[in-house]
Amino acid sequence: MPFSHHSHSGQFCPDHAKDTLEDVILTAISKNMQVLALTEHMPRGEQDLYPGEKSTLESLTELHDRFVGEAERLREKYSGRIEILVGFEGEWIRDESLKLMQDRLRKHRMDMFVGSVHHVHTIPIDYDKVTYVEARRKSGGADEGVFGDYFDAQWNMLKAMKPPIVGHFDLIRLFSDDANRHWKDCGGDIWEKILRNLRYIAEYGGLLELNSSALRKGMTEPYPKVEICRAFIEMHGRFVLSDDSHGVHQVALNYPRMLSAIREAGIQEIYFLKRTGKTGLDPRFPGVQAVDVPVASLEGHKVFEP
Question: Does the first or last residue of the chain, that is N or C, have fewer Cβ atoms within 10 Å of its Cβ?
């Protein structure tokens, strides 16, 4: 019974994803997935476009509106074959990001959203090495500086948005000098900031995403690293699975390796979101609940087989 709570398509994320939304869903069905959340990026202002991107806030808003309509159509079409959740990936770039997120929630009845940080000092930190280095320079020139600023930005996002799912918690390590080093080995107060953020997520009832995309990008562990998962377990935190797929070839990609990390961390239960008609996840998303299953129940499913 695999799940993914974070996905993209080339149809509605044309700059860095592939394939139609329907093809992504059909691939998930072919893999006997139980839950697929459709979470295209929320609109961004013109000042936050990526290099070479030719869009406007108006065009990105219109694109996301069309995404919601198509996602709802496909949810109805494939009802009974897969549980489809309609949401978005939230962005925290600057103070105005909160209003853009709230606009999405006011305009559409969403099932959930993923709260993410892709920028530090309004500069992308996962787009390429060049922009990461620029953000790092603004943080003093060392990885530790931009790490600390990233987790502070994440802290601000968590307090403002209280996302039901927190996306790729330690994304900041992607283009660092050593993306696999242990967080506890970093200097300064970085580990304390990580624990502060985890504690807040646990307190408001957020779900921490186990995101397999780190593995296809060359890292040895999913987001977040095992040491972070262990700390979140001690806080009685809850986890969900995500592939952060950007096309059909990435649906459930590297789930066997992610299951190994789950075992190593000592995670005993995995949660998934379900439209039950009863509210239990968040009052902003009536009718959606978080349901738990034992990790042992995942074993034996074909997407988790090496």
Answer: C
Nearest to 165 by CA among 214, 108, 210: 210
CA 14 to each of CA 47, 53, 67, 242: distance values in angstroms, whole numbers, following the listed order: 19, 10, 12, 20
Q: What is the pLDDT of residues 73-91, one digit of tens each?
A: 999 999 999 999 999 999 9
Closest CA to 41 of 61, 55, 21, 25: 61
Q: What is the pTM of this model?
A: 0.97
pLDDT tens string 5-32: 999 999 988 778 889 999 999 999 999 9
For β-strands 3-4 and 35-38, DSSP reports them as: parallel
Sign, Cα dihedral of 70, 75, 285, 167: negative
More confident residue, 279 or 39: 39
Q: What are phi and psi of 210, to 5 degrees?
A: -90, 110
Alpha-carbon distances, residue 229 vs 25, 78, 156, 175, 181 (angstroms): 29, 34, 21, 21, 15
